[in-house]
Amino acid sequence: MTTTFEEFVAEHRAALQREAEASRKRLFLFALESVDTDGCPRVSGYTVETLIGQGLIEALPGDNLGRYQLTAEGRIALQANPVEEPASDELALFGALS
Questions:
Q1: pLDDT tens, N- to C-terminus, the chain (98 residues)
Q2: Phi-psi region of 62 (alpha: psi -120 to 50; beta: other; left: phi over 0)
Q3: Which of 74, 66, 71, 77 is nearest to 27 (CA)?
Q4: 52 phi/psi in degrees, rounded to 5
Q5: 3-state SS record for the chain
C-alpha cells in the first residue's frame, strides 16, 4: 500500500509540474519601455518563459506558489537609467495577465 501511495504522490506532483509549466507559457507580462529612438514609451509583452530564457527572472527558492524574482542581470536590465545616461533600452514591468 505504501508503494501505491508513493506512486500517487509522484503522479500528483508531476501533474502539478505540468500544469505550472503550461501556466508559465500562458502568463503574459506587460512592460513599459523607454527606447532611445523617438523618446516615446511603448508597451511590450513578454511570456514568463521568455524572461526565464533570457536570464532576467528566476523562480523563488522554496516557493510553492509559482512566484518569480529578478536575477542580478534582470535588476540591471530592468532598472531605470542606472548610470544616469540618456535613455537607451529601459524596461519596467507593471502588470501581468494570465
A1: 567 888 999 999 999 888 877 777 767 666 665 555 666 666 667 777 788 888 888 888 888 777 788 888 877 776 644 444 444 444 555 555 54
A2: left
A3: 66
A4: -65, -45
A5: CHHHHHHHHHHHHHHHHHHHHHHHHHCEEEEEEEECCCCCEEEEEEEHHHHHHCCCEEECCCCCCCCEEECHHHHHHHCCCCCCCCCCEEEEEEEEEC
Rounded to whole angstroms, the Cα distance separating 14 from 12 reads: 5
C-alpha distances in angstroms, 81 versus 10, 56, 87?
Answer: 46, 17, 7
The reported pTM is 0.47
The neighbour count for residue 74, using CB atoms within 10 Å, is 19
What are the grid coordinates assigned to 91, written together?
524596461
